[in-house]
Amino acid sequence: xxxxxKQFILYAMLSVFILLTLLLGVLNAVNFTMVAEDAxxxxxxxxxxGGEFTENMDGLGMGGQSQxxxxxxxxxxxxxxxxxxxGFQDGGRIGPMGLNSPExxxxxxxxxxxxxDSGSAEVIAYKMSAVSEExxxxxxxxxxxxxxxxxxxxxxxxxxxxxxxxxxxxxDQGRExxxxxxxxxxxxxxxxxxxxxxxxxxxxxxRKLFKPLEEADRKQRRFIxxxxxxxxxxLTVLNADTELIEKEHGVSKTTExxxxxxxxxxxxxxxxxxxxxxxxxxxxxxxxxxxxxxxEEIEKQRKNIEDAGMDLQLDIQDGLTMTCGKEAxxxxxAEMTGNVAVYGKDHAAISMxxxxxxxxxxxxNGTELPDQNAEGVFDRFVRLDNAKDLPGDGxxxxxxxxxxxNHDGRCSARIEGGVFTATVNF
Amino acid sequence: MKILLAEPDRDLLSGYQQLxxxxxxxxxxxxxxxxxxxxxxGGDIELLILDETLPRVSLASVLQFxxxxxxxxxVLLSAAGRKVRELSGVKADAYLSLPFEPEELYQLIDxxxxxxxxxxxxSKGAETDE
Lengths: 426, 130
Known about the structure:
The structure holds 2 protein chains of 2 kinds. Chain A contains 10 helices and 13 strands.
């Protein structure tokens, strides 16, 4: 499986995951909020009934009735029957029975404890078998400093003041919460299953999607290899023939021009072969001593750098290692130091350091070019103004970038105050 | 030096035949495998310049035969570049990847024959022992 396909699957999975989590998260959040709202309405009913359900249970705002209507109804027993009926039809949210069911006083387990200023407690209503009255008092006392919320997971409570006393009402919402928890579990399991299915689907579909791309990639490689192979022999023959002509007729401007052109083409052909070679070399990863590798490559160029009249400063941290394609990274260092040797002026500095798990290799040298972001040097066939008369095909640094990207690194370059600095981060 | 040039491309073959002759070598040519084996047999060849794409006979058998015939130096011309080094069983004294310039070949010939000459006393000693 290639990198692009892996990334495609990863990002697609990530979006499916985010979408599903968001959707199911909102669904469950709304569901739990609604249960809490309904529970709060019940505790409100109890608070208005002094800890007990009154005969007039008109649903407290359920079915669009305002607080005022309800208060009026409470004060008008003749209308209570009507209110009940209306509420029953509306149903409420907590199941078919609804908040307005006449059975609500039987089905809700609850207790209310009143505390006076001295802190002595009086159990106003007690209809709960899960705890004893004493435990209920202690439980209520522990809730005094709060207003409303969940306690012991499935119990809803409300703390309110009435006639100078503080009342604590606790109701059991275990039965109402069960379906919500069930939905939560189903959502979680469903999400896992959906993710599994989409993974399978993405793997399947990406194989189809990427097949033409992989095919094109393979053809391109094949083409490059063919061109490279087919050019090699003719170029070698041209080299030999030019030398033969020179031996027979002497060196002339014509033969020199042929040699130059053949050399250019040969360099290009070698580049093409190195392209495929370094791509493969990037794949085989081993633990490599980068410090030693960089020093090796610098030694190869030291003479060239010094011959060009540059004073070379090195600041290379020892023993820096990385898992990478050794020959590919060697090419990176070779290109970069070679660049310093060919294009540098006056002074050159090469450094390698490790900061925050990242290795930074920096190559800098003097230049007569003006300040600029020189990122372009890593593009194909881009050469800076000072390079036009110097050897090179404008491809070296584009390979560097390819290799560095293959190793999840990045390249940058800029010119500032007469110093060209190219940096590679791994 | 007695050189056998085994190269399937006729132009390349004739070009380097002339160039190496110019450099005072005694050069014989072969453009395919069996011809190479015939010329190697009893030809007292000192240097074999062998193209890896030589048809008819496998590279490994040519190399083995060359060793049996006591060819002192083998230079392998490879269009496939360095990967040739990784091929199992193919062992030459030097490798030259195409395209190359005549100067590169001359230098390589000098280098490998110098190396062989330095190692000579030992190998000659071994031979006389036999």
